[in-house]
Amino acid sequence: xxxxxxxxQPVSRWLPLLVISAFFLNLGGWPLFDVDEGAFxxxxxxxxxxxxYISTFIYGQPRFDKPILIYWLQALSxxxxxxxxxxxxxxxxxxxxxxxxxxxxxxxxxxxxxxxSFTASLLCLNLACWGIAHFASAxxxxxxxxxxxxxxxxxxxxxxxxxxxxxxxxxxxxxxLTKGPVAVLVPMASGLLFxxxxxxxxxxxxxxxxxxxxxxxxxxxAPWYVAIYLQQGQAFIDGFIxxxxxxxxxxxxxxxxxxxxxxxxxxxxxLLPFTGLLLQLLRKRPLVAIExxxxxxxxxxxxxxxxxxxxxxxxxxxxxxxxxPLLLLMASQIDALRSxxxxxxxxxxxxxxxxxxxxxxxxxxxxxxxxxxxAMLATAPENADTAYRTLTVxxxxxxxxxxxxxxxxxxQKLVATGVAQALILAWAVLPLLGQIQQQPIKEAAAxxxxxxxxxxxxxxxxxxxxxxxQRPVSRRAPQSGDLVLTRIQHKDALPPHQTLFNENGYxxxxxxxxx
Length: 515
What we know:
It is a single chain. The protein is mainly α. It has 23 helices and 7 strands. Helix 4 (85-111) packs antiparallel against helix 5 (113-125). The strands form 2 sheets. A 5-stranded mixed beta sheet has the order 4-3-5-7-6, with helices on both faces. A two-stranded antiparallel sheet has the order 1-2.
């Protein structure tokens, strides 16, 4: 009897369904998370309000963290589909879906349809990539352009054609409009290492200094950079170039510093439930592979891993800049995967944690010194309703049954586990976390939207308040007549006030007028 399980079906049948279920299911099912989602959506909200489509602002002040492209796409999505979480996250989900298709189309003629489809599954379902597809930020879009640059640079190595080289410059230009210099740094450094390793460095240098390519890049990227410089002047250079790019490597930002081993546990966590494949890869493959594509993959991922391990600012998503080549390497290992434990143990880790998550958060609340965090985390058990318990326990049991089933191969077990993990995250875990952390801010903003007093955030950086109130918000000391959102530990330090809202450690207060 023919085996009819997922990986044996034609990819045209199951890949679109997998992408839709992984990246779009319940996309708007929880509030926007602060700080990052709130900052991106808040800046887009202010862009739509003030009509300035060159410079971005948050709290009425310039925001130089990221270039403009993701804000344009979010503004378009919100204009078409409404001012809601689904619309703000849609550009990320679409970018991630295209990312999957790019990697599949690249892998298919080189690895075969089965390994290409497994590569697509790894990208759809690993914790980090699934996460940024559901995150209203620039990361999924940037990784799409990095993946496009990666695959076309290798195609250029295979067959140096002018059209392929032009595409490389286009993807880099779009990356520059998405997140800045990292879109140049990663492909240029990894490309230099790879071409040099194959004794073709001269060819790489000629491609890198191609006049037509640079003209195309500047035609795409330069207009916005020139326009924002004309608007903001030296403040843009100081804020975007020097602070948010150069200084992020040399200094530690907002406590996000680590050490040279920081990304080792981060990588193991990001790849769940497929971490066993990475361990298999490290055990079976040399770090310097003989095959050109393997070597290119190792050099690209290795550069990202080493460079950001040495960076003064270390954030988990920086490692995603090298995730596409790593997933290709991992997918190449499916024929060599023999250990059931390398599949089973990582597969059970997160689902087991999700079952106990409400109680773990409540326990963490007792250990917290921060009054707002203590109040917020303590509500987790009461917010974990019957649906949460059913989904997490049922999902864990389903994963366990898949992994002990003799009818499924190890790759099929991995894919089934990934699908279950994504469903638990989308329908249980993220809605719970959103309910306890962000829902009070959303509700406070709904109250503020109906009032006329000036809105103020005091001793709190909660940009989603801008998104949900859709009104100007300032960050400053409270004044007479203000409507102030703050954290519970600062409530007693407010001037005489009337408390309008107090939930999960967030307080919305009306400051009494002087008269």
